[in-house]
Design brief:
By secondary structure, the protein is of the alpha/beta class. The chain folds into two domains: 160 residues, Medium-chain alcohol dehydrogenases, catalytic domain (Quinone Oxidoreductase, Chain A, domain 1), CATH 3.90.180; 137 residues, 3-Layer(aba) Sandwich (Rossmann fold). It has ten helices and 15 strands. The strands form three sheets. Strands 3, 4, 5, 6, 7, 14 and 15 form a seven-stranded mixed beta sheet that branches. Strand 8, helix 4 and strand 9 form a beta-alpha-beta unit. Helix 3 crosses helix 4. The protein is globular.
């Protein structure tokens, strides 16, 4: 069958191509996409040609022409003989590219799929795989009720980090970003306070608001290595710093003695594909991707995880290149972008 898919053909160039897709094999599922969501960090790193894996000979799949995207929702069209838990007509969330149809293979990373709760629309479900990356902060810190939290960087991943921390019981929750539209999006979701780092000293503003030396939890979602020392400075004594954005590069000027060792701060990474609670709270039912996605879909369906102020553009596949340009150069206008296929 003929399908359409978006490809980044070379840096700063995208196109929509038509290809033939085979019928599903015994271990495969064919799904028709309704909506896919844009992950600005990963996709823009590929679009601009700066993603580190593009230069890695050990990563043959990360070469041009590249198929961007990893978060989508749609309807099962056909299933192979070995697939027992899905049937045609089922509505699912899955880690799909920006394409009209996708073959998902059982037992492979692209073989994960999650049924949509009753009443959850495709456009909301499309963001679930991206939301998992922001959710990592709540999981990694072993969140308990009433702990103060600050999120540094309010792009899509930061927005989900903030929203998940709120849903997990953090209070108060503060968003930090120089872009006005992003701060307004955080407030629309229920953030208790936002800080503009271009207008006031972040450390002083945060400490004055919280009435203590910093936040108990700091999620760095900037994707900038040099922001990690700032995130460390925003944490209170014995606080936790979780890096949920993908920092592509090497941080400079990290004062391990004064800012980490003497202040007893815990700094950890939380990549969305590796979801672990801290060792002292890890139990037999520990978090994994399947548990995370089921929680996210249920929270989206129940309205516990708000998308208020987050989805700024709904586009057609042919407009993805323009949306990438908007995310790069018009940050006051572009934040969450959804691609409509039906």
């Amino acid at each position: 069958m003929k399908i359409r898919q978006v490809v980044v053909t070379e840096p700063y160039q995208t196109s929509v191509r038509e290809i033939d897709l085979a019928e599903p094999a015994a271990h495969q599922v064919l799904v028709r996409c309704a909506w896919s969501a844009v992950s600005p960090g990963t996709e823009l790193a590929v679009y601009t040609g700066t993603h580190q894996w593009l230069r890695d000979p050990r990563m043959p799949d990360w070469k041009f022409p590249f198929r961007p995207g990893y978060s989508a929702a749609g309807t099962v069209v056909a299933v192979g003989a070995d697939i027992k838990d899905l049937k045609p007509g089922d509505r699912i969330s899955y880690p799909g590219n920006h394409a009209s149809h996708e073959l998902l293979s059982l037992g492979h990373e692209r073989g994960r799929w999650w049924r949509l709760p009753e009443g959850l629309s495709f456009d909301k479900a499309a963001v679930a795989c991206i939301a998992r990356y922001g959710m990592g902060a709540s999981i990694r810190v072993g969140q308990t009720l009433g702990r103060s939290a600050a999120v540094l960087g309010l792009g899509v991943i930061g927005q989900f980090a903030l929203r998940c921390l709120m849903a997990a019981g953090a209070y108060p929750v503060v968003g930090i970003d120089a872009v006005k539209m992003r701060r307004e999006s955080a407030l629309a979701a229920g953030a208790d306070r936002v800080i503009d780092p271009s207008a006031e000293d972040v450390r002083s503003a945060l400490r004055n608001y919280l009435g203590q030396t910093g936040a108990e939890i700091v999620a760095d979602a900037t994707g900038a290595p040099d922001a990690v020392p700032l995130a460390m400075s925003l944490a209170c004594e014995a606080g936790q710093v979780v890096v949920v954005g993908s920092p592509r590069g090497i941080a400079k000027d990290v004062n391990f003695y004064d800012d980490l060792h003497r202040r007893y701060i815990e700094v950890s990474g939380a990549h969305g594909n590796m979801l672990f609670e801290p060792a002292h709270v890890r139990l037999a039912g520990a978090w994994d991707i399947n548990k995370a996605q089921r929680w996210l879909l249920a929270a989206l369906a129940a309205g516990r995880l708000s998308l208020a102020g987050l989805i700024t553009h709904r586009i057609r596949p042919e407009e993805l290149g323009a949306a990438y340009q908007g995310l790069l150069h018009r940050k006051e206008e572009y934040l969450g972008v959804l691609v409509q296929w039906e």
